[in-house]
Amino acid sequence: MTQEVQIDSKWREFAEARCADVDARLTPARWAVYTELVASARPLSAYELIALQESRQGRKIAPLTVYRHLDFLIRVGLVHKIESTHTYVSCGHPDHGHESQYLLCSNCGRADEVESETLERVLNEMADKHGFQTTKSVVEMTGLCVDCSTVEG
Ligand SMILES: [Zn+2]
Ligand SMILES: [Zn+2]
Fold first, then answer.
1. Which structural domains are found in the chain, ordered by start?
2. Three-state SS across the chain?
3. pLDDT tens-digit readout, 19-29
């Protein structure tokens, strides 16, 4: 028996719009992977995702198919990959294209997506100065989030 994850309907609209951009279909399998990430409070590894999907759908799932769905979701901008921890997180604002920066808590595992136009400009200027053509820019800061850094004595 399949249990569907309950998430806000705005995510469905985002997902359908991003798929329409590339003339792709939001298949049930893609949607299932996406909702798992939206519902999760922290980024998930591919294996955590597979395990969650398997228990939800009550059947074995080939890892390769999950990777394929993740690649698709990343390509259309619904999901970001956190390079330093090899995990995946749903984009907090998939209504516009953007580079993402992340604040990663090493204690609770939470990942906050932040957007800084200033930082993007600085990085672009730096690359330009070196005649460098950037294909991908990764900014991930590791440390303690506000909750974890304010632990009472
Ligand atoms: Zn994003
Ligand atoms: Zn934390």
1. 9-90 (1.10.10.10), 101-146 (3.30.1490.190)
2. CCCCCCCCHHHHHHHHHHHHHCCCCCCHHHHHHHHHHHHCCCCEEHHHHHHHHHHHHCCCCCHHHHHHHHHHHHHCCCEEEECCCCEEEECCCCCCCCCCEEEEECCCCCEEEECCHHHHHHHHHHHHHCCCCCCCCCEEEEECCHHHHCCCC
3. 999 999 999 99
